[in-house]
Amino acid sequence: MRRRNRKVNKHSRFTVNTAGVVALLVTGFAMAMCYGVLGMRCTSVAQELQEAEKTYKQLVKETERVAARWNELMAVDRLQEKLVRFGLEMNIPRADQVVRMNAAGRPLPGQIAVVRARERMATANMAQVAPAAQSRKGTTRRKIR
Q1: Can you give the pLDDT at residue 79?
Q2: Please, what is the average pLDDT of the chain?
Q3: How far apart are CA 111 and CA 115, in angstroms?
Q4: 3-class secondary structure, 107
């Protein structure tokens, strides 16, 4: 008996060159789609950024307008006019009457107003302590007598 040749000749429709070209085209198409999607995303982000910058510029202009109006309202002449119009007997505080505070709520060091306030408090405390001490002495004497 003769042996049969068991090799099967399989012929493919596509050759190696054709399969490579198809794979290259599919990969190129996928890359082109990714590029298009990323391009659209970048465009939308750029539009959002332009809108945000426009809003920022409007807010900056509005802030400048409000600050100018506030400075105009807080001018010394305007304050004096309003005090006279409403009949308030007030004056702008002198430099030794103004105490500037830090974020913790304590006076900043080296201010004239703080030194003078401490001096006034010390003299006021001394004045309060003296009558209280005399009244205590008087009450003890009354009890003893």
Answers
A1: 81
A2: 81
A3: 7
A4: strand
Q: Residue range 41-64: average pLDDT?
A: 96
d(CA 37, CA 28) in angstroms, rounded, equals 14
SS3 for 16? helix
Q: Which of 32, 52, 34 is nearest to 42 (CA)?
A: 34
Assess whether pLDDT exceeds 50 at residue 88. Answer: yes
Mean pLDDT of 99-104: 84
d(CA 65, CA 73): 12
What does the alpha-carbon distance between residue 4 and residue 70 come to, in Å, rounded to a whole number?
A: 106
- Concatenated DSSP letters for 24-58? HHHHHHHHHHHHHHHHHHHHHHHHHHHHHHHHHHH
The tokens of 23 are what? 């794979």
Provide the CB-side half-sphere exposure for 95 (13 A, CA): 3
Residue with tokens 């304590």: 106
pLDDT at 141: 46
